[in-house]
Records
---
Amino acid sequence: MILTVTLNTALDLTYGVPELVPHASHRVSEMSERPGGKGLNVARVLSALGHETVVTGFAGGSTGTVLRELLAGLPATDAPGPEAPGTTPAPIAPAPVTDALVTVAGNTRRTIAVVDRATGDTTQLNEPGPLVTADEWAALLGRYEELLTGADAVALCGSLPPGIHVGAYAELVRAARAAGVPVLLDTSGEPLRRGIAARPDLIKPNADELAQLTGSREPMRATRDARRRGAHGVIASLGPDGMLAVTPDGIWQAAPPARVLGNPTGAGDSAVAGLLSGLVEGLSWPDRLRRAVALSTATVLSPTAGDFDRAAYEELLPRVGVEEHTPAAR
Amino acid sequence: MILTVTLNTALDLTYGVPELVPHASHRVSEMSERPGGKGLNVARVLSALGHETVVTGFAGGSTGTVLRELLAGLPATDAPGPEAPGTTPAPIAPAPVTDALVTVAGNTRRTIAVVDRATGDTTQLNEPGPLVTADEWAALLGRYEELLTGADAVALCGSLPPGIHVGAYAELVRAARAAGVPVLLDTSGEPLRRGIAARPDLIKPNADELAQLTGSREPMRATRDARRRGAHGVIASLGPDGMLAVTPDGIWQAAPPARVLGNPTGAGDSAVAGLLSGLVEGLSWPDRLRRAVALSTATVLSPTAGDFDRAAYEELLPRVGVEEHTPAAR
């Protein structure tokens, strides 16, 4: 089982409008609602890859109730129909996603993605999230330590809700390491800085997060600097340029076969799912990176924000280029 | 008791952001949630004026539940503190607002007002509302006819949710007239056009709604044309220019003492509450118009969208100018 932790879960709303015009009134022509927050997105992709997942974090209030109802409906039951025998490999059956969220008194936040139908551009509005009390944080810590006993790996994902101390992720990283469970940390700002010092197995910053952490926008310099701060492995996601992995076993650069156009929402979460599933399956670094790059590229290509296009994923997987940096190049 | 009907109730969310920038990500710094839809806003103002109100219409799903919880908290209990005896008139005690909404299977819509903290400008996003079934509409009609037996007046307010036929308001107007209950219709487009033909006692279009209905932007021409289409009285709200009333008893123009700056959200709903409470209290046309103009101006001046500033209302009331058009001027 893979555990994902989302301290600031969200009810993600997507609104389609013909065009977003500031100071005008808009009738929303299409809308969708789904359980969100980075760790929940990671769990959805892990499930699609056939990995049993348990999600924890906080949920509360009326939006928390809706989020949990939607979560209970995962994995989506639109299983592929019967196919002619022998033509294609059997599809991977989606694995269950188990709700182990801790109930809080506050209201789970909503996030609203307003999608301009003319251009596909998205304007994002994020509520701050519920104020979490000290007792609620203690309840989460207890739940987390129980869940670690059955976990093959854990992902700690996203922003902190109000009331949670900035060293929260460092505390969760230490608990995972004490339990011997590989831990990936995907956050930003001060919670990332503090969390790295607790020596997580992996971090997956994007270029902005890396620059904020290290002050450098030069990928190799920034990634190596991030690793020196305490992370065992740093997988920098460089958008259309793919990923740069600086690990104890070597340095690799992985890139999609071509640049793609689409919606990058959730591409980073798909990459986390790729890295974590590869780790649990004992794949080599190049194969983990191939999977992570193919999944995040297939997420950009998907018509639904945050989902990945399975056919594109399978088509891309063997075509992702992975190059090892030789010691001289290091 | 005054009855208000809101077929497309809404959970109104207000998000404060430093500045709304299309295609950027925004952290919402302040947010509020309240029960909305025009008829609910009218009821809130009627309650503040001391009129018992019953609200009907549709509510459903998780957002409907939240809306009804918030509605149960009305009227707000922040009663004025004790004052030195004899210094000011006793404040009007808010009257109860009773929930007689019909439960539907669909989810009540949300509306989101994104307020730019730098300029005060608002960008509005409105979900379409639940699909209402024929059985749900029949249940509403039954509830409405029961409620009419105890009503002194009724206001029919706002847009129609999906699934409701465009002649719905005409049907509700006819039922009110058959029951001998004065009926005010406040909607727009085709539902207004159809509703007028059923001969409501009053309509309260704004300049855009009038122009859409009659093809004219000249206030006197358009207002008289609207009256010829079937409404007994037409009160055109002309924004900062006040109101023009074309009624069976005469024609009046009412205007605030000065132009004011502020948020016009809800000003029309306050005007409806002013007109309807004045009708029920048997006020003269000039006094009804004075109240409607003072209430809507005090709504523009209120720091909270949709609330009215009571001190401003009391100060404005005697200063609203009302002028009768003599037959020659007609």
---
Amino acid sequence: MKIIKDSVHDHIQVDGVARALLDTPAVQRLRHISQLGTVSLVYPSANHTRFEHSLGVYHLACEALERLGIEGRQAHRVHAAALLHDVGHGPFSHNLESLTYRRTGRYHDDVDDLLADGAVGDVLREHDLDPAAVAGLVAGEGRFGQLVSGELDVDRMDYLVRDAHHTGVPYGTIDHGRLVRELTFADGELVLDEGNVQTAESLLVARALMNPTVYSHSVARISKAMLRRATERLLEASEPDIDAATLQRMDDHDLIAALRSCAATSEFSRRLDQRDLFKRAVWAEMNDVPGGIIESDHGMIREFEREISDRAGVDPARVILDVPSRPSMTESTTRVMVNGEIRQLGQQSPLVEALRAAQFSQWRLGVYSPRELRDRVGRAAVDVLGLDIDGALVSEVRNGMDATLDQFVE
Amino acid sequence: MKIIKDSVHDHIQVDGVARALLDTPAVQRLRHISQLGTVSLVYPSANHTRFEHSLGVYHLACEALERLGIEGRQAHRVHAAALLHDVGHGPFSHNLESLTYRRTGRYHDDVDDLLADGAVGDVLREHDLDPAAVAGLVAGEGRFGQLVSGELDVDRMDYLVRDAHHTGVPYGTIDHGRLVRELTFADGELVLDEGNVQTAESLLVARALMNPTVYSHSVARISKAMLRRATERLLEASEPDIDAATLQRMDDHDLIAALRSCAATSEFSRRLDQRDLFKRAVWAEMNDVPGGIIESDHGMIREFEREISDRAGVDPARVILDVPSRPSMTESTTRVMVNGEIRQLGQQSPLVEALRAAQFSQWRLGVYSPRELRDRVGRAAVDVLGLDIDGALVSEVRNGMDATLDQFVE
Amino acid sequence: MKIIKDSVHDHIQVDGVARALLDTPAVQRLRHISQLGTVSLVYPSANHTRFEHSLGVYHLACEALERLGIEGRQAHRVHAAALLHDVGHGPFSHNLESLTYRRTGRYHDDVDDLLADGAVGDVLREHDLDPAAVAGLVAGEGRFGQLVSGELDVDRMDYLVRDAHHTGVPYGTIDHGRLVRELTFADGELVLDEGNVQTAESLLVARALMNPTVYSHSVARISKAMLRRATERLLEASEPDIDAATLQRMDDHDLIAALRSCAATSEFSRRLDQRDLFKRAVWAEMNDVPGGIIESDHGMIREFEREISDRAGVDPARVILDVPSRPSMTESTTRVMVNGEIRQLGQQSPLVEALRAAQFSQWRLGVYSPRELRDRVGRAAVDVLGLDIDGALVSEVRNGMDATLDQFVE
Amino acid sequence: MKIIKDSVHDHIQVDGVARALLDTPAVQRLRHISQLGTVSLVYPSANHTRFEHSLGVYHLACEALERLGIEGRQAHRVHAAALLHDVGHGPFSHNLESLTYRRTGRYHDDVDDLLADGAVGDVLREHDLDPAAVAGLVAGEGRFGQLVSGELDVDRMDYLVRDAHHTGVPYGTIDHGRLVRELTFADGELVLDEGNVQTAESLLVARALMNPTVYSHSVARISKAMLRRATERLLEASEPDIDAATLQRMDDHDLIAALRSCAATSEFSRRLDQRDLFKRAVWAEMNDVPGGIIESDHGMIREFEREISDRAGVDPARVILDVPSRPSMTESTTRVMVNGEIRQLGQQSPLVEALRAAQFSQWRLGVYSPRELRDRVGRAAVDVLGLDIDGALVSEVRNGMDATLDQFVE
């Protein structure tokens, strides 16, 4: 048994299969993957890693299982899945996931191979656990998969509180103790017990407030887009030495070092290192963006970028078009017991619809460029994309407002 | 200058007129008025007082004024109003306010006399401040009154954080530092500066989540209703020795002692002291309550209670009907700058409408009685009030659910 | 089972005998006994009660027993003792303990009668527990008594953290999680396991820093002395209606109301209510106090006071002599495993001796009087007690320093 | 003006010269230097960086200067020094400082060149500040240098609280608000004002408790020694490409990448990455170590290591001898006002001597090796160094105790 001191959950006790997994390279590697990637360029204290988060998820899973009365092999499988649920992450966690997915067809929770091979596979089998079953839990499959990856999973409970602790933004401070205590199974589904509509809403609201303030803060988005672009160039310049699969197994240090030493990416790398970031040339609400653009695939976006840089007469490397996908709200299907029957939160709470609407109103298409080109690039982007010019352009004319928007960023 | 250590804001520096007001009996009295009244019967750590809250409000007012660049007499007036804003409270703060209002016609923020008389009046005049002007600020009048009592007042910012700290319920943990920093004046109105729709929403959400979980928790409501009923009986039994005006100037100790020693109230008092509370016989949603009942005035409610006790064949002192007023949401008029214009939060944010709807869905009419009479009283109340019996009754049949509802209470 | 939300330990789960004891009048009464008495006149947020502290002690006891592998009847006895350990406290906890002890011969942990009688006795017997055995644990007897009342008891662990939380003074923030985890039994003694000299020292240091900053802050001492004096006068004026045994069963509200309504104490009561406190006329280090004075019993102290007031020509009610007893340091016998053998902390750690010396250097004899009499009373006291005048006198000449000393008080 | 959200101090406002310095590469580089180096191998949440710490130090310096009434150029110089005080750090902060000092003759606070050159020099001169004067403050020179680097500096106040927040170990939670408020100048010296012996002691105690628990935890020491050894080998293998000056300007990513890719260090690097650390073969108290060994210079230590490995018959790369220098306690000269005169804390407080003694009793000489060689290496080291064998050897025989010692490590 090992006791680990954690800044969020205080003491975490690690036993059994989790104790053995802790010492595997795959888990230790998570010490070098930052939890929030470029968010630390906005909130400088946000340097926590996937390692401590994984410990936290394991800890909450243990508590939940104890409440649910689950023991033995079934519990051990969930323990393993909780500790391993993020081993599939590449450097900078979600920041580069769209890029690696495009090239490998795999998301971070597709971990069948990673759990079957090497030290992790050995440990699991020594503890009589089937790697494929554990990988299934990580992917959210089955009755207990909901606890690891679902609307009410312990992953979310840990990251909201942890991200609040490390950014200093209090919105994520949910009552995770209550959430874990009130979980129960009804008809094979993980639900919150009677009297917890409020509790479910609080989880929803925490994410809805953390999202624009932390996860999708404009500066975090800009730097993420720059990192993604730099990494694409790195792959183009370095293949086959560095391909997407190699990238996926790197950690933050590897990628940063690679970006610094590759001629094609050193300028992006310098900008990220020195926080000399691109600025918003365009920042457009959904209403100001013509239909279809939001559905653009990667190829179309690169094509738009080329057109914009052509029209603006600037180097294509100086223009980034950032089109977030249509907002979704998985929490709407969170199940809560109300007067003895299972209800979906979306049926029960008017907040779900409101928060969905809020997400749509917060959605922004961004076009980024170096500060000195912002004006030219902005006008070109408005033309090429057919945006509403009044709503979209972040020009010098509107510097005043922009300064204000920038005030709460580091 | 005095430095006071506070568990919420750490060090509070008290200067000038505030320093002199601190030593007045009217302000020191607030040490003996609990902030949340009977909520401590649900959350046992919630024993904080109006005194420390008043210091916190003063502290945030100082910070806000500094940010707004307000100095001199204007600032001192606000300092005084912030520290004095709660001196009009009677014992148990809001718990008995409807009762004293009915008999005196005054709410707690009607403090003209209190500020003009005695030591407080002397201190204000010595510092060249007009008591009437300070009382005006407490009542929310004028440009700076909004800071003391309005949608964006520092009162709310302090109590949400403080109540969260003392109850242990994290929902009230707003980012008060940011709120105070982002206040500005536009067209004479106190507004949140550009880029703060989110910030305004977070204030709204905090209150919306604290409300059912803390302020209107069913056990807090039951005990408040019992306290109110006991105090009414005390007045009836003790007038003219104790009348509403006397009551209003008591503190918690005075009232508790009076209730204990008065024969007419000693049973209520024993129940409150020993937390041997009435239970819900009826707990009805708005839809299950016939039109008109929600508008009942005090006389009608007493009349309903008599009818219910008659029909149930129990002592009228054993039945309490508790009809909250129709929910309102003052925060909907919070003003936020959006793209250079002042907007009301209700126009801008879909959350406002959703939270309003949530308030309506959380509204409950309650009928309370001793546990052993719950069944008889509940059936009688359903008949007398014409409630929908399936939705309203909290009978033995539904004990299971009720137990669950009670689980998270102390 | 009941879940109670606590501002310090978050969720406290109350089961079995503790659940039944919770609803007894003796335990509910603790809601009305403040934990720190007059300390709230220095730290205004310190309004926590013996009730929430008792829940916290119960919670830590459960955790410790679980770690120690103790179950069944033995554990239930400790659960009961933990929850009941403070039911013997009178109003304002320790503030009046010397007074009631003098008249009743009982300290607050002498609870044989209280546990045998009434609802508490009934509950214990219903759960097959012997009230006398539980009272023995409260008095620190036997193997498990050490856990409830000893050098390593959970009482201390809870109050240090709780008092830190509520005063805002961080010095008490010990690592109670680690302390509870590292407890073990060796040769029938409760010890801290190998590798925890540091952990034991931290507990010692926390108390050593909290002591002068919080528990023995000069303003807390002055107001406590005033309260004690007022209560003595109340007993003298009201016996046999209010005798020491009656007093002991009062709560804070009862005593405050009694002091307010008794002519002989109303002036003290007004001063305490309005924080119009006596000031230090003398504040003398141990070296400046002639031998023997520190050993004075109550009669001698009253005699000194009369002599001082005579010599100063002031009303005897205006002079209070406050002579703390010689410091002790029970933690020095805390047992810690070092290289496989049990050692006393005092043998192992040089800190123990240093903190004992610090306690002696912080010891102060105080003479208190109304501010305007401070000079006359101070000089008279110096003469009567034979103090070193330069060290002891807090005269107008030294007002500057005194003001500084007062700065960090509310 | 920029507002930065910090997890420790909440909002930090950055103005003037600090605002301009923030964007320089030298300051942004600190984002990539971990504050506590290998301590994160013990406390996994301790991933904070020199960047956020520097902001915190700047913040506290601003508060202290405001209290001291210092404005204008003088203040700006201190602001700049506070933000820049750590730009001289190499990768992993103090972990490698002895190594780089040996080769460059410079400690991290020797920053004359760094402040005179490049963007930092430009910014300072643009703001009319002399880089040499700012560098002098960083080195602790002059009246205000004490605030940046001295017994009462804001550096220490920030790091204690910050390290406590991120490790979860509460011992560092000092009352920095009070410390900053109570600073004053007397006879040109920075002192704590009257009534703050306790406050000074609390700072001392915090460091004394954090030291063995965090900064010198055995696992942190082992991993630091491994990192140092690896880096030495890197320099030996890579010079002149990577020399000590180059190393000093690297950040954590650069060094980690270099260690991974260099054949001579890849095994150490793998061990550090996977936390497959050396174990203690010897762990000897000062009394068990012959005179003179503690004074050994680097050459002598390497010679001892060679002798030990020879005698044990193992590869010299498998033996590390770690001899900490003799403990010192700079805080003993902290100045505090007592009764109107400046006293050194060491004269006033018995704690200083006790903590000094505690440091000596906690001192340990370590010999580290791979687990499987521990026994052979331990016996060889006892012989070569002439240690007392009973006290020093951490052999298999004593595994039980060792396991316990290891329990609280991650």
